[in-house]
Specification:
single chain; 188 residues
């Protein structure tokens, strides 16, 4: 029998840039470019063998968002995302060197996301905001549904392939600058 235990919290981070167009000042269509890093550490126990593994993923994402905005900066958003993995590596307790496993992951994976948030500080020209996003990857991130084993010591027998579709929760902190070119002349 094999047991997996996710070991502690391994928060990731992301940086993004977004540009959008507002329609009727309450609906916006935005394009976001996002770079992220995530990792997961876990322990595996199989009989007397104890094993630790750390997986680190770096990706670029392109996101198209439809966002409903309130007059004071609150928002609801939904969109599509395309994920491209730049680097995926793992380290484990049986082989402390880092192994690059990028080729075992699909080049492009599609997903959906939704979120909501509101301003921490709101001004007519800009705001600082806080939000929550939830993202689900529709396409499996692994090629052929098989997780690679690269240490030649530990092997998990399986009877069929399974998909890997991450569900990610983001806490966002952002700065939005409102140009408002269509509604008034910019004042510098």
């Amino acid at each position: 029998m094999v047991f997996y235990l996710v070991k502690g919290s391994n928060p990731g981070y992301y940086l993004s840039a977004k540009a959008g167009v507002n329609f009727k000042s309450s609906i916006s269509l935005a394009f976001e470019f996002l770079a992220s890093q995530m990792q997961q550490s876990y322990d595996i126990t199989a009989g007397n063998l104890q094993y630790h593994k750390n997986l680190k993923m770096q990706s670029l994402e392109k996101i198209i968002l439809l966002r409903g905005c309130g007059t004071k900066g609150g928002y609801l958003e939904a969109g599509l995302r395309l994920i491209s993995f730049l680097n995926v590596s793992e380290t484990n307790s049986t082989n402390v060197s880092q192994t690059i496993i990028r080729d075992d992951f699909n080049n492009n994976c599609f997903g959906i996301l939704g979120g909501f948030g509101g301003p921490i500080y709101f001004h007519k020209k800009y705001d600082f905001n806080f939000g929550i996003r939830v993202s689900y990857t529709i396409a499996s991130i692994l090629k052929d549904g098989i997780y690679p084993i690269h240490d030649d010591i530990y092997h998990i027998p399986y009877s069929s392939d399974a998909t890997t579709n991450p569900l990610i929760v983001y806490l966002t902190l952002g700065f939005d600058w409102h140009f408002q070119w269509a509604t008034e002349t910019p004042k510098f």
